[in-house]
Amino acid sequence: MSRSAPIFPHMLFTDNVSTWKKTESSRPYWVNTQEEVEKFNRTAENQISFLLNNDILVYYGHPSSRNMGILGRHSIEELDRLLSALAAEYEEISGGKKVRKAFYLIYGTVWPRGEIGIIRHDILMRYIEYGLENDILIFIDHQIGRFDPIDSLKKMFPYLRYPNVHLAFDPEWRTNQPNVYIGHVTGEEINRAQQVMEDYLVENNLPGERMLVIHQFNGIMIRNRAEIRTNFDMVRLIHCADGFGSPGMKRNSYGFNALASNMPIKAFKLFYNFGIPGAGYDDPLMTPKDVYALNPRPYIIMYQ
Fold first, then answer.
1. Which of 239, 234, 267 has its CA nearest to residue 48?
2. Which residue has the higher pLDDT, 206 or 173?
3. Beta carbons within 10 angstroms of residue 271's beta carbon
4. Half-sphere exposure of 82 (CA within 13 A, CB side)
5. Is pLDDT at 223 greater than 50 in this prediction?
6. Which pLDDT tens digit goes with each residue over 105-160?
7. Sign of the four-CA dihedral 157, 158, 160, 165
8. Could you report the per-residue pLDDT of 64-114, keeping only the tens digit for each?
């Protein structure tokens, strides 16, 4: 599925651009206090086979932009209320599976020439801490830009100290010419990403399985995807069908992803129409019943 002339991400921010040009090397690394260790151990669940018993419903976006997804259009409390109502709709037809809530934040946003703007630490922590207190999962997503995908993923590793945090990256924006060329990652890079993520979890004695989401809406974005492994002990790879359009177009895109049976855990993304000039959206928006009718049924459903 193609994306026609979207608004360039850096035009969607409302704050001063310079705020978002912090270098990735400035991200904090830290050590837990004993109080934090005890708190997080109490909070962390045994997540073995987590996705066998739960679907995950996600609101996606950047907290500082109304135009990059629903996450930036409401307060945390209002997002929680709206997401809870939508989760109840899904749970009514889920066939007995619980529907868990999640916020999906753009951690690294691509800029011209493939530079990356990193979300402010204090903004991200507001969502992580709210999630810990209110049983909400947090995904943080890196758009990579001109940088190495493994190095980009590593920048987010310190946030894995929080047991509700999971990671993602978006191959579309792995490019130094965004909106000119669609980016890509390789199957080998995805395998390395899973390995270094698992190594970090083991070396730092971090609890529970963690998810790693990879987006795809056409064949360009993941090369040699038949080589991708999903047999890691602590990392669950999620293959997400991205892209907007009509229900027929979205089903076709999802069907292309479904062919990758070596990545059996699928996700599906939907796009609201906020009336933003030049921004893509789904027309019409598929219903929860439509989404659950996809084959295979997605484990994670996200709304931008």
1. 234
2. 206
3. 22
4. 14
5. yes
6. 999 998 888 889 999 999 999 999 999 999 999 999 999 888 899 999 999 999 99
7. negative
8. 999 999 999 999 999 999 999 999 999 999 999 999 999 999 999 988 888
Q: What is the amino acid identity at position 278?
A: G
Q: Which pair of tokens denotes residue 191?
A: 């395998």
Tokens at 282, concatenated:
């789904």
* Tokens representing residue 88 in the block: 């109840």
Look at the block and give the residue holding tokens 């893509």.
280
